[in-house]
Specification:
Elements lengths: L1 E6 L3 H12 L5 E7 L3 E3 L4 H6 L8 E3 H8 L2 E4 L2 E5 L4 E4 L3 E4 L2 E4 L16 E4 L3 H18 L2 E6 L3 H18 L4 E6 L10 H13 L2 E4 L3 E4 L2 E4 L4 E3 L2 E4 L22 E3 L11 E3 L4 E3 L8 H19 L15 E4 L5 E5 L2 E5 H17 L13
Parallel strand pairs: 1-2, 1-9, 2-5, 9-19, 10-17, 11-12, 11-17, 12-13, 18-20
Antiparallel strand pairs: 3-4, 6-7, 7-8, 14-15, 15-16, 21-22, 22-23
Bound molecules: flavin-adenine dinucleotide.
């Protein structure tokens, strides 16, 4: 029997699992290697920090999905692979062979330039480690009755996190006891339109987040800014963009210049016909696009079709990623900013819109799973 190996339970793989749950294959063994029993939905994370959601609302439970899809779980992490021998090496479970492999393990974050600090350093990736660390840190702040947080990274995640953290801490400690600074050396919301940047700046000011437009390195008391100024902080949240995991280097697969898996049309590896990748770990060499959940989600359906077609020896379906994507940025209270091709909309209705989209995404993977065995193909 052929084996389809899914590495990581990222956004694209959720859709592969969902389609296997709807049409279970009895002629193929499907194995998922992933370290956690749930898949965090990052779009709702700022809402969890701000206190609008329970953590369980922000995650897809994997076990019911896997049971219905007939997929075997290996609860572990990919630590390496040898594409020549068609094996993936897990951190604990050893080697697993495959006929077809699909990788959706997300990106990592390189926070090494911030490491030389005595403040608590909380990289936002992996998300599972971040939520545990943030929960503990928030408890510490509540006990101390005051907080000084620096969020490093001026992209969408950094802006949303800074606003969410400030909202939560100001609510619990009082505005004057909760200092939050967004450190945005690379600029604020690069790639978004001027109206969106202006609206985000206004929200940061309105809700009491300071902005330091400077690169920063870790320093004993917090951060050392490029200006030479020190920024004292008890906690540094690193939201400094995506980096490729180290294991791709020796995998034997074609990579882009930064170590991400190079894929082409149909999300297939440009070097190995039996290997696919989607989400932040992948780089479309023919149609480069930003790393964001939107693209990971959009790649899911075509990935699902192409894995099935490869198992059946059929030609692949083509997929051209969209050129533009909608961003909905939560601003702390139940308000949000929409960014679409340079246009900007903001307000409580944008939050309600975002809330509906996000909840529907998570719910989609619980819905219809009470069918006992899925329909065999
Ligand atoms: C705070 C925050 C807010 C964000 N908000 C948005 C937003 O609103 N809209 C948007 O489009 N994007 C957003 N993003 C970006 C978005 O999170 C990522 O682009 C998206 O998660 C990428 O999806 P993915 O499927 O590639 O991987 P991930 O969602 O990172 O999933 C990877 C999966 O693989 C597993 N895994 C990791 N390493 C291994 C390994 N070695 N072996 C096996 N399994 C592994 C993980 O446990 C996880 O299940 C946000 C990011 C952050 C940090």
């Amino acid at each position: 029997m052929k084996r389809l190996l899914l590495a990581g339970a990222g956004h694209a793989h959720l859709q592969v699992l969902k389609s296997l749950a709807a049409r279970r294959r009895r002629d193929v063994e499907v194995v998922l290697v992933t370290p956690h029993l749930r898949q965090m939905y990052s779009g709702m994370l700022p809402g969890w920090i701000a206190g609008h959601y329970a953590l369980a609302e922000c995650a897809v439970r994997l076990e019911p999905l896997l049971r219905t899809a007939g997929v075997r779980l290996v609860q572990d992490s990919v630590a390496g692979m040898d594409a020549g021998r068609r094996v993936v090496r897990c951190a604990e479970a050893g080697e697993i062979g495959y006929d077809v492999l699909s990788v959706d393990t997300g990106a990592e974050l390189d926070a090494s330039s911030l490491a030389a600090t005595d403040a608590a350093l909380l990289p936002v990736r992996p998300l599972e480690a971040f939520v545990v660390a943030w929960d503990r840190q928030a408890e510490r702040f509540l006990r101390a009755g005051r907080a000084a947080v620096a969020v490093v990274g001026g992209g969408a995640a950094g802006v949303e996190l800074a606003l969410a953290i400030r909202h939560r801490l100001a609510h619990r400690l009082g505005g004057d006891k909760a200092r939050v600074t967004l450190v945005a050396g690379g600029g604020l919301l690069a790639g978004h339109g001027a109206a969106v940047v202006a609206r985000a700046e206004a929200a940061l000011k309105q809700y009491g987040v300071d902005i330091a437009r400077s690169h920063a390195a870790g320093a004993p008391a917090g951060l050392l800014l490029a200006s030479g100024e020190e920024l004292a902080a008890d906690c540094i949240v690193a939201a400094t963009g995506a980096a490729a995991p180290g294991w791709t280097k020796d995998a034997g697969l074609a990579l882009d210049g930064r170590g991400f898996l190079a894929v082409g049309d149909g999300q297939r590896s440009i070097s190995h016909a039996e290997v696919f990748a989607a989400g932040d770990i992948a780089s479309r060499t023919d149609a480069p696009h930003a790393r964001s959940g939107v693209y990971a989600v959009r790649a899911g359906p075509v990935l699902s079709v192409n894995l099935q077609r490869t198992l059946e020896g059929r030609p692949l379906a083509a997929y051209r990623p969209q050129r533009h994507s909608l961003y909905l940025l939560a601003t702390g209270p139940k308000e949000a900013i929409a960014s679409w091709r340079g246009l900007c909309f903001a307000g409580k209705w944008v939050w309600r819109w975002k809330d509906r989209i996000d909840r529907a995404f998570v719910a989609r993977f619980d819905a219809g799973l009470n069918l006992p065995a899925g329909k065999p193909s």
